Amino acid sequence: MADKAKGKMEQAKGKAKEAAGKATGNERMKAEGKADQVKGKTREVAGKAEEQARGVADSLRGRRRP
Length: 66
Hints:
The chain is an all-alpha fold. The protein contains two helices and no strands. The mean pLDDT is 89.
C-alpha cells in the first residue's frame, strides 16, 4: 500500500511541477513534471499489482486449509 500512496503523491508533485513550468515558460521543469507523473503512475500500478498478488496468495492459502 505504501507504493500506491507514494505513487499518488509523486503524480501530484509532477502535476504541480508541470503547471509551474508552464506558468514560467520553463520547458525543463514542465518535462520533469511529466516524468514525475509517469514515475508516480508506474509506482501506483506496481503497488496495486502487489496488493492483488498478496490477495491471491492469501486466498490460495485459505483454500488449502482443511
